[in-house]
Design goal:
four-stranded antiparallel beta sheet; seven-stranded mixed beta sheet; single chain; about 130 residues; globular; mainly beta
């Protein structure tokens, strides 16, 4: 059974940090790209950061550049999102997603929804004082 399981969300004050984890399992074919998306109440889902499983290339949404870092541990089949200097506007449900046939990391992240994409259940991140 293909599965993506997120963890690490929570409540943090503005300026604080969180690290999200996404553990992948059950893939019969290696996924080519994996990334983080988020959806705030009343807003569309958007790509935050994506990473290629092949060459490690990364993509970041402009609003998180310099604050968030995506990384992967291939041995553990786990992808991380280190989030620093968090802002109230980062508040959202964060979803991990994997594509089997990614073209580029930018394409993956820009396309909020794609046929065949595997999604995790989501983890809530709330930035508030």
């Amino acid at each position: 059974q293909v599965q993506l399981v997120e963890s690490g969300g929570g409540l943090v004050q503005p300026g604080g940090s969180l690290r999200l984890s996404c553990a992948a399992s059950g893939f019969k074919k290696d996924y080519s790209g994996i990334g983080w998306f988020r959806q705030a109440p009343g807003k569309d889902r958007e790509g935050v950061s994506c990473i290629s499983s092949n060459d490690g290339s990364t993509y970041y949404q402009d609003s998180v550049k310099g604050r968030f870092t995506i990384s992967r541990d291939n041995a553990k089949n786990t992808v991380y999102l280190q989030m620093n200097t968090l802002k109230p506007e980062d508040t959202a449900v964060y979803y991990c997603a994997a594509d089997l046939n990614m073209v580029t990391v930018q394409d993956m992240c820009v396309m909020a929804y794609k046929l065949g994409r595997t999604w995790g259940q989501g983890t809530q991140v709330t930035v508030s004082s």
